[in-house]
Amino acid sequence: MPRVEIDSDLCENSQVCEAVCPEDVFVIDRGMISVASPAECTLCWKCVENCCSGAIRLED
Ligand code: SF4
Ligand code: SF4
Prior knowledge:
This protein is an alpha+beta fold. It is built from 2 helices and 4 strands, in the order E-H-E-E-H-E. The protein has one domain: Alpha-Beta Plaits (2-Layer Sandwich), CATH 3.30.70. The protein starts with a strand and ends with a strand. The model has no long low-confidence stretch (mean pLDDT 97). The site of one iron/sulfur cluster has 14 residues, from helix 1. The site of one iron/sulfur cluster has 14 residues, from helix 2.
């Protein structure tokens, strides 16, 4: 299962990752982004490519 992690020290809560992810990996809960369903990740890398702060760590 892919590992999808957000480094909370780097994340600026732009929520871009949730917007670009074609799967339902991220969730916005009470205004804050978090990783909900890493098992759904297809390793398309869109979240990493679009994150402005380099906060997403993705591993196969
Ligand atoms: S795109 Fe990057 S900075 Fe924006 S919410 Fe996602 S992890 Fe945080
Ligand atoms: S790699 Fe693609 S599918 Fe996986 S979390 Fe990022 S945007 Fe979503």
